Fold this protein.
Amino acid sequence: MNQDVNQRVNQAITAFTLVVRDYDEAIRYYTEILGFVLLEDTPLSAEKRWVRIAPPSAGKLRGASILLAKAANEQQHAAVGNQTGGRVFLFLHTDDFQRDYDAYRAHNVHFLEEPRNEAYGMVVVFEDLYGNKWDLVEVNA
């Protein structure tokens, strides 16, 4: 391996962007339906805000946060809900699959399949309010 690469052992992905239609609509969905926490909502201009959300345990696990970015042009609007060309985009790990599956069903989250048991654990694919595909996963111990 390149010596320069070996010296970068303290890097981490701390956030990634999810392009959304509307800040407040997205905040409501991810906090009220999926149970995420709003980490930050800072106005940057009349049209732009710095909005970060994460699952409740992300801080404890040093997980990445999601930066909600309001679509600002035609190209970005076209990407809302299809940021990966129809593939599963996000993988949400849980310590209790049944608890979270039942809670999401109670909030009318749109599941694309029935839960299935894979070699690595329980998984189900769902769509968020924009159509982005997520895996809800409980990994085997």
About this structure: The radius of gyration is 17 Å. The chain is about 25% helix and 35% strand.
